[in-house]
What does this fold into?
Amino acid sequence: GAGVSQSPRYKVAKRGQDVALRCDPISGHVSLFWYQQALGQGPEFLTYFQNEAQLDKSGLPSDRFFAERPEGSVSTLKIQRTQQEDSAVYLCASSLAAYSYEQYFGPGTRLTVT
Amino acid sequence: AQTVTQSQPEMSVQEAETVTLSCTYDTSESDYYLFWYKQPPSRQMILVIRQEAYKQQNATENRFSVNFQKAAKSFSLKISDSQLGDAAMYFCAYKSDRDDKIIFGKGTRLHILP
It folds into this structure.
């Protein structure tokens, strides 16, 4: 059984460019999470989906960040007009059910904005 | 708001010895989960051990055990018979029973000395 996969693993963007990061959760998992992990820090919550519904986006740092999960499976995190402070590892996690205690993490996408 | 604090940025232990990583947290809730995650250089976040707040008995998973002190809001991880493969960043984390997102500490980098 495949785990959570993310692509690309590495992304370099020039400041001002738009980027799109993809997450493929474990098949059948209802909940999907995005976290941002700055260098030397712990992951910080960005947003959460239950199926296709985005139930919590309180962690998105600005309106340049947008996430979607249109069919309740694959999710895309989009960052518009990237800034240097957006450089981080973006982790995706999924869980089988709502309020499940266990989240399964992907390997992350390391975004570097130059 | 809930917070998780790890006061040891780095620790070292001799192979085959025992090491304890510290964690404190703050919450006003009574039902929650606590976790220790391991993040090797591959960035894949791996769940090491989980503790439900309503359980008085400390969780144990093979060489890993916790000391959960609910009144003191302390949750330390003990690794026995340390192995080279244990070298990684370790994150203490909290999840409310009424919420889906996980709150992470800043991490402790564990070095294993051969």
Observations:
- Chain B has no helices and twelve strands.
- Chain B has a mean pLDDT of 95.
- The interface with chain A takes residues 4, 33, 42-47, 50, 52, 91, 93, 95, 97-98, 100-107 of chain B (CB under 8 Å).
- The longest strand of chain B covers residues 88-96.
